[in-house]
Amino acid sequence: MSTDTQAPAKGRPIAESRGERVRRVLSSRVASAFALVIAVLWTIPTAGLFISSLRPEDDIRASGWWTVFTDPSFTLDTYNYVLYSDSQGGGLIRNLVNTIVITIPGVLVPVAFAAMAAYALSWIDFKGRSLLYIAIFALQVVPLQMALIPLLSFFSQGLHLGDLTIMPAWNLSGVNTIVQVWIAHSIFGLPLAIFLLHNFMRELPGDVMEAARIDGASHSQIFRKVVLPLVTPAIASIAIFQFLWVWNDFLVGRTFGGGEATRPLTAVLGDMAGTWGFGWTRLPAAAFIAIIVPLVVFLLLQRYFVRGLLAGSVKG
């Protein structure tokens, strides 16, 4: 009896699948060398920024940063000026502290609420769950710029329905306005965080949840002792994205901040050069101060970030 499918003859190579060919090409020496070249080219601007931040002001004005290899000259005076000087373009240590104070709650609050909301939408059966999830997903379509004025009006004028005052004006001033920045970052970061965490949590084994319920665990216990350890890489990945977005934000801090007392670092970098651009030589040091903290955070959480990106890509 003949069949259409025949075993390959002895010694005859089996046809290579498309995925195996792609994997073989991407892992070749040529591909590795190409990736290395891209990494070097991608790093050159950052290296040039760092070298320029360490050069004396006269050298920055006279030549490019690459001349440091033939005529090396370094100083920390620029860093000392931009961090601690009371003159124009200095005193960034206050703004750096403001950015840290804004960023930490701006990351922890939305990620914590997003994790709880994602669990509820994934594993708690309640009426209207699907509609609520669709509404949260749809909020990602709303541009940030469209929500700035209504939210600012809510903070400054309150919420009124005719003659009925639903919420009075907050009337915050000075350092207290930083609360508005926290709330704004949390509101704008929640939809995407809930959407991503929901996708991760829905992939968790249902047998594990059912076993925990049979053992008498409540939803709170399941969330804390079962779900959180399993989705830690995903939470770390989302926290990194939220951290980078809040740290590098300019528009929200500028709109909801209360002036000099709460201005983040990004809000003052554009003013450092001065009206006529005389202070541009201090920008490399200020810019590197702005990027060093996110760089350290990313390097510390890199392994969680990679695991979070790969979560769910392999089954079994």
Oligomer: single chain
What is the mean predicted local confidence, pLDDT? 81
Strand order of the largest sheet: 1-2
Low-confidence stretches: 1-5, 312-316
Structural class: mainly alpha
Question: Radius of gyration, Cα only, in angstroms?
Answer: 26 Å
From the spread of the alpha carbons, the general shape counts as flat
State the helicity in percent bands: 55-70%
Give the strand content.
under 5%
Order of helices and strands: HHHHHHHEEHHHHHHHH
Number of helices: 15
Largest sheet: 2 strands, antiparallel
N- to C-terminal separation? 37 Å
The tally of strands reads 2
List keywords for this structure.
two-stranded antiparallel ribbon, flat, disordered C terminus, about 325 residues, mainly alpha, disordered N terminus
Describe this structure in words.
A two-stranded antiparallel ribbon has the order 1-2. The radius of gyration is 26 Å and the shape is flat. The chain contains 15 helices and 2 strands. The chain is mostly helical and 316 residues long.
